[in-house]
Amino acid sequence: MTIVCACIDQEDNAVWMGADESISNKDEMHLAHNAKMFKKDGFLIGYAGPCLFAQHINYLFTPPPVITNGPDLTEYMVRFFVPRMKSVLEENGYKEPDLNKDGGEFELLVGYKNRLFMLGCDLSVVEYKEQFAAVGSGALYALGAMEVASTHPHNDAALVVSWGLSAAAKFDSHCVMERSMLSTKGDQDGLGGQPSA
Fold this sequence. Notes:
Blueprint: E1 4-9, E2 14-20, E3 22-24, E4 29-31, E5 37-40, E6 43-48, H1 51-60, H2 73-91, E7 107-112, E8 115-119, E9 125-126, E10 132-135, H3 139-150, H4 157-171, E11 179-183
Antiparallel strand pairs: 1-2, 1-10, 2-11, 3-4, 5-6, 6-7, 7-8, 8-9
Helix pairs in contact: 3-4
């Protein structure tokens, strides 16, 4: 049970992402350090679902290089990024779910420069027209808050993410106010930003 929110910052050619720091099961909840977001070779990845899959992606998966003047980023995600991720997950016990029976087991938000994708539990790739997205048990609350925050002309992407995290923590009993934020802003390869509490 979790919340991960992200918002595109067009001015700075970046994506801001934030997550609450709770790790929970049906019986208990704890706080963990940056367990739900990580950076991988220019990508910012946020995760809602079992910790083991997140650890496999964080420590065993290496994204294929993005080729300058290569395929569009959506095509790259479908043809190269997802197959490599799927291979790593399958080597470590992942089975594609029967969506009619099992529902979703995990979701990912993936930011690269100023692009934002949602990957479902079947590893399908979606890029929404909205400049923001959220996954996890608190996503519906977060999306409502982010929609309102994004219409205010003085709110930047980091503040839109913060509104989403706050709404999820207030209304979803499995989300907490303790949070971290990261961004692709800054470095040459699209990475930057520091964890913040």
